[in-house]
């Protein structure tokens, strides 16, 4: 790989409760997965992040999730197909409206939290999210977990899929993410994260939590914006990639 996209989950503050440093992250990443109000975010805050993304030329994606403000969208749910399709369309549409006012546009969709992990392997819920995206705009790109069945399922349905890897999350040997309920599921050391991502970009491999090396197809790297060291980790990853000759550029820009 000669270039890579760096993304982060932003717009997750709610009223007077801040979540992450969106301003700093927007100056580092090339794509922003912006909350749509279901798992986090309020309209005024979301609009502010969209304006910042537009000003800096950062690509915008709809970070859709389960309707779960209390659980931050990280609790497993089993909505009906009608509910999940409707909720996904609603969230994309809301962000599209705000993005238009901010002078930018929604180019891709990245499901959040429990929804992201569920549709990676649950064919029915995956089909619902895919159907919702196609109903809104079939040109929208789906960002999905590298190696998960949904990648081929979405591509077979006609969507463009970008595979991503997580800079600050530990992986199981089968390529899935280590549950946040388990110790060491989130990596907080910026230097360690940066070295892991540099290896991934160079070799297509990452070290799983059990020490084995696993192969991952990754065209975008995610740094979560809600962790305490998020900005430091994102900067460390960006610096390591750039210093080693990689171009940081959104996948949306060709």
From TrEMBL:
Main EC class of this protein?
hydrolase
The residues forming a coiled coil are none
Q: Which GO terms describe its molecular function?
A: 5-oxoprolinase (ATP-hydrolyzing) activity; ATP binding
Q: Which domain of life is it from?
A: Bacteria
Q: CDD domains per the record? A: LamB_YcsF_like (cd10787)
Q: Which reaction does it catalyse?
A: 5-oxo-L-proline + ATP + 2 H2O = L-glutamate + ADP + phosphate + H(+)
Instruction: Cite the entry's keywords alphabetically.
Output: ATP-binding, Hydrolase, Nucleotide-binding
Any one Pfam family here would be LamB_YcsF
One of the GO biological process terms:
carbohydrate metabolic process
Q: What EC identifiers does the entry list?
A: 3.5.2.9
Keyword field contains Lipoprotein: no
Quaternary structure (record)? Forms a complex composed of PxpA, PxpB and PxpC.
Indicate the family of this protein.
Belongs to the LamB/PxpA family.
What job does this protein perform?
Answer: Catalyzes the cleavage of 5-oxoproline to form L-glutamate coupled to the hydrolysis of ATP to ADP and inorganic phosphate.
Q: What is this protein called?
A: 5-oxoprolinase subunit A
